[in-house]
Amino acid sequence: MKKVFFLATILAVIGWIIGAFASEFGTEEEAKAMVKKAIAYVKEVGKEKALAEFSNTKGKFIDRDLYIFVYDMNGVVLAHGQNPKLVGKNLYNVKDADGKEYVKERIELIKAKGSGWQEYKFMNPVTKKIEQKKAYVERYEDMIIGCGAYPKK
Known about the structure:
Layout: H1 2-22, H2 28-45, H3 47-54, E1 62-63, E2 66-72, E3 77-80, H4 102-113, E4 115-123, E5 130-140, E6 143-149
Antiparallel strand pairs: 1-2, 2-3, 2-6, 4-5, 5-6
């Protein structure tokens, strides 16, 4: 009986650890949902107020490693939840660690499809390491609104 209880306790602790680790990071589904929530927020409060909130590093659009970023159709950052210092900068030709021009790719994706997923490397705000990122982006008016998850392998 003691062995069964001990084994059950060990399994419960392992399950808790796995669950705690998994909840430390956002998922692709949560990233897409955050973009939908951000678009609804722009419609509700207007562009200026929404962009300010999206760049608030302690705001309502920050959730673990998930945050909203917004670009215009020329590659200028309008809001960035991880690094507000990027606001106002044109990143059209910026490259990730593998040399991918991900902002240029993002704009091309939006022009072709209006929304979709893209992959590139970017600094994870939780781990502080450059990691693979899968971002969902959607066009709303003259903006590209996105949020990405850092898939764990």
